[in-house]
């Protein structure tokens, strides 16, 4: 290939990469009308694996709550952007993100989601004209600022080349939540936060700066409560009172995982780190029994499990919760969708969670 020809081929590839792809991806990402109804609530699980460390089967925690077609993102683990693409959801439609707590598995996918729409409008993005609002406990503001600075480094190179990022204005607005109560409302939803027990073992000097929340979303079709990561918690049970759906983390501690006094097979005492981890798993997460009891105590109408930790199968998790709770229990997979439908034309309110048709 002559140098001149190679130049034009490269130019064509560059044009395809920089100009055509964002627009075609945007078209592909349009929500599929069959799976996201214009009316009603949809809970779309994007990632259902609890804890850091990537797996092939389940992505890190992230859930999309879609109310009358409008998406709200709850948590944002690594892989969230890839799952949004696979779900056919246009990330540019997401304007509001809620972080339950700033553990790595809930927050480190944020830059990937924010970055996807960072290009300026004429290059298929929306970075110059749209504000993302990110709600979360301290230190979410620090996380958002760091994400912006991280993204900006690479886009500065684009800007230097005149490739669609000439305006590097910060489109991200963090809203830190430092107390329980109503933290957000718009014409579709009202969100109430309650501090849970996920950080209860953290030394006090850190807990003043780092919090972990559960959120209750009041929607036109029912209340949906996200536990976030938590141990048993009277505050979360109260927050979940009579909710239509409890979207909960769950852990299978397995036999003998409640903090052995010696390292299995030896007479050695576990290290301080191992003891802290065992205490964290048993007291700051939610075993099946505790989840079932919380759901019963709160009289929720259904339980949707996500953020799985432990070796149990979906059926074992369901059976483990059903021993303590008599309502419907679902074990969610990545990309599964659950619907709280709008009332039908007869006016009868369904308000019962079920996999979307
Ligand atoms: Zn987690
Ligand atoms: Zn956590």
Concise account of the structure shown:
By secondary structure, the chain is an alpha/beta fold.
Topology:
Layout: H1 3-28, E1 41-47, E2 62-67, E3 70-74, H2 80-87, E4 96-98, H3 104-107, H4 110-115, E5 132-136, H5 140-160, E6 172-176, E7 181-185, E8 190-195, H6 204-207, E9 213-219, E10 222-226, H7 234-239, E11 245-251, H8 272-283, H9 288-298, E12 303-309, H10 314-322, E13 329-331, E14 337-340, E15 354-355
Helix pairs in contact: 9-10
Order of adjacent strands in the largest pleated sheet: 6-5-4-3-2-1-14-15
Beta-strand segment tally? 15
* CATH homology-level superfamily: Ribonuclease Z/Hydroxyacylglutathione hydrolase-like
Global structural class: alpha/beta
- The CATH class: Alpha Beta
Distance between the termini: 53 Å
Mind telling me which CATH architecture this is? Answer: 4-Layer Sandwich
């Amino acid at each position: 290939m002559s140098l001149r020809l190679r130049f034009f081929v490269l130019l064509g590839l560059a044009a395809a990469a920089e100009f055509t792809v964002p627009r075609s991806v945007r078209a592909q990402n349009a929500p599929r009308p069959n799976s996201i109804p214009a009316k009603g609530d949809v809970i779309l699980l994007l990632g259902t694996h609890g804890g850091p460390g990537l797996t092939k089967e389940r992505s890190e925690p992230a859930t999309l709550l879609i109310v009358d077609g409008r998406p709200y993102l709850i948590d944002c683990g690594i892989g969230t952007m890839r799952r949004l693409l696979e779900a056919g959801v246009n990330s540019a439609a997401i304007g509001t993100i809620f972080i339950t707590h700033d553990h790595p598995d809930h927050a480190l996918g944020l830059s990937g989601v924010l970055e996807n729409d960072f290009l300026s409008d004429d290059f298929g993005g929306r970075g110059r004209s749209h504000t993302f609002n990110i709600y979360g406990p301290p230190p979410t503001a620090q996380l958002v600022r760091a994400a912006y600075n991280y993204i900006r480094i690479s886009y500065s190179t684009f800007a230097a080349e005149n490739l669609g990022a000439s305006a590097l204005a910060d489109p991200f607005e963090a809203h830190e939540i430092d107390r329980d109560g109503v933290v957000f409302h718009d014409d579709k939803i009202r969100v109430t936060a309650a501090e849970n027990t996920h950080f209860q073992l953290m030394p006090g000097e850190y807990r003043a700066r780092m919090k972990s929340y559960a959120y209750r979303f009041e929607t036109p079709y029912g209340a949906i409560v996200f536990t976030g990561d938590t141990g048993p918690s009277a505050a979360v049970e109260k927050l979940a009172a009579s909710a239509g759906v409890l979207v909960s983390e769950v852990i299978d501690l397995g036999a003998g995982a409640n903090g052995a006094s010696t390292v299995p097979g030896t007479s050695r005492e576990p290290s301080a780190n191992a003891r802290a981890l065992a205490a964290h798993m048993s007291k700051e997460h939610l075993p099946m029994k505790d989840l079932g009891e919380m759901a019963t105590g709160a009289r929720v109408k259904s339980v949707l499990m996500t953020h799985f930790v432990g070796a149990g199968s979906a059926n074992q998790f369901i059976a483990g919760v059903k021993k303590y709770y008599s309502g419907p229990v679902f074990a969610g997979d990545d990309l599964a969708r659950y619907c709280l439908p709008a009332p039908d034309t007869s006016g009868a309110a369904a308000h019962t969670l079920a996999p979307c048709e």
